[in-house]
Amino acid sequence: MIRDEIGRMVQEAAGRAQEAGDLPAVALPDPAAIERPQRPEHGDYATSLPLRLARAARAKPLDLGAILARHMPASDAIERVEVAPPGFVNFHLSQRWLAAQVDEIIAAGPAFAQIDAGAGQKVQVEFVSANPTGPLHAGNGRWAALGSALVRVLRAAGYQVEAEYYFNDAGTQIEVFGRTLYARYQQLFGRDVPLPEDGYPGGYMADLAEQAREKFGESMLKPEGEPAPEELTNYGVEQVMGWIRSDLSSLGVEYDTWYREQTVYDSGNFDKVMALLRERSLVIEREGAVWFATSQMDADKDEVLIRSSGLPTYLSTDIGYHYDKFITRKFDRVIDIWGADHQGHVRPLKLAIEAMGLDQERLQIIIGQLVTLRRGQETLKLSKRSGDIVTLREVIDEVGADACLYFFLSRSADVPIDFDLELAKQQSAENPVYYIQYAHARIAGILDRAGDLPAAGDGEGDVSLLTHEAELALIRKMLVLPELIEAIARTLEPHHLPHYAQELATSFHDFYEKCRVIDPEQPDLSHARLKLATAAKSVLAMTLELMGMSAPDKM
């Protein structure tokens, strides 16, 4: 990336200045921080190194900037270097170098969006992980979009990534689910059986009971008053997991591992981590329950691990699960994506990671906010418990997978989303999904209409002819993608992808309006612009792919 190259050049300039005696022998950052100025007239890149060195060097930032500028090594990429108040050094890229990047992007192909920031580190991303007690709702779609985008970006950034879905196939909620299903099943045979007070009243449970009757007939009926048959509960869980897999697959979301909660116990990891905590005197017993003594680790209170009933809590199971992630499967880094209702779970789990002898920072937890679905002025409800559920499947069927992914991904995870279903269906520039995909289709149409002009990438086309400001602006925007991938891998904020895609589409549409791509009277320029269009199509397709969206050639 040219940004990193400029950083190395600044580092070299500072070293040269010290050797020449123009700069005191102060410690230098390695590499020098390079940023993009907010205003284009300030250049393509800038460094604030003079401001950072001023105190240690006992010199004015502007004077230090001038020294750095004077010692900068020559580069074909840099047209000029400027020093600006209060102490920035600004870099303007050469137009000729910018134009040459079109050939570089075409030659690189998909590798243009590949960097080596991760250096092969082993990372797990666990997301969605809804309990199999009902179909996914629209809010789950947000975590699917966020998690799958992170997986793709981290892989592009050079990490070895595994995507995982963790589901509860044991415990209280599954027991309640089984009792609800059995009540519905018995009702089909004329029994006057009420639903459990804490059960799931959604209509999908009646549908599931009907499927069970078709499969089992009356064989699951037990004498009245007996508990729900385990086989019926297991059948219901498997059916719901099938719905979940199907819905996620419809979004293009795939997992490397589907991990059952029961595995935490069957593998012995639950017992191992409990023994570890006891060994470190972090387990205490009182009030008939077993507690994690987090108050000994500067927390406000202790946390229950095993209730007085003998049943483990979600926290204890999660500790065992993360023992498996870090100790057994040896992930270097784990990223969990949770809903806002799990906020209180973060601190205790991180303390458990510390108790295992690991750095808490190896576990990163993203807490997401809710999704509000709207259709015009109408707000649609999402509650699985109330039975008035808007399923993810319904949203996919109404607006399409691409619109779901884009809108679910379009805001930072810690900000609630208002998802306007009507906007998502519009075929107009008001709909960013349509606007972005139309840019890709428009480019494909241009390339199809090129006629006898040689296809870009076959050696035809002198890109040095690309000098129009709209052409250069489009190239500059394309060069952002590798930097964006590096930034998202570092910050875990993939919501920047849809915004970048829209900016890239805008740059292309602006170029198309201002520059005639196919001009029979200027064949050489047409060849060059076809190359530019080809490069833009490639980068736009890569960006859409990172979000899991399609890149249509026709609309």
- The second-level CATH architecture of the domain at 428-547 is Orthogonal Bundle
Distance between the termini: 34 Å
Work out the helix count: 20
Helix content: 40-55%
Q: Give the CATH superfamily of the domain at 428-547.
A: Isoleucyl-tRNA Synthetase, Domain 1
Structural class, by secondary structure, is alpha/beta
Radius of gyration: 29 Å
Uncertain spans, ≥5 residues at pLDDT below 50?
A: none
- Which fold name fills CATH's third level, the topology of the domain at 428-547? Isoleucyl-tRNA Synthetase, Domain 1
Q: Mind summarizing the main beta sheet? A: 5 strands, parallel
Compute the average pLDDT: 93
3D structure, described in words:
The protein has 20 helices and 14 strands. The mean pLDDT is 93. The chain is α/β, with parallel strands linked by helices. The protein is 48% helix and 13% strand. The radius of gyration is 29 Å and the shape is flat. Among the domains are: 2-93, 2-Layer Sandwich (Gyrase A, domain 2), CATH 3.30.1360.70; 172-250, no CATH class; 428-547, Isoleucyl-tRNA Synthetase, Domain 1 (Orthogonal Bundle). Helix 4 (95-108) crosses helix 17. It has a five-stranded parallel sheet, sandwiched between helices.
Summarize this structure briefly.
Helices cover 48% and strands 13% of the residues. It is of the alpha/beta class and 555 residues long.
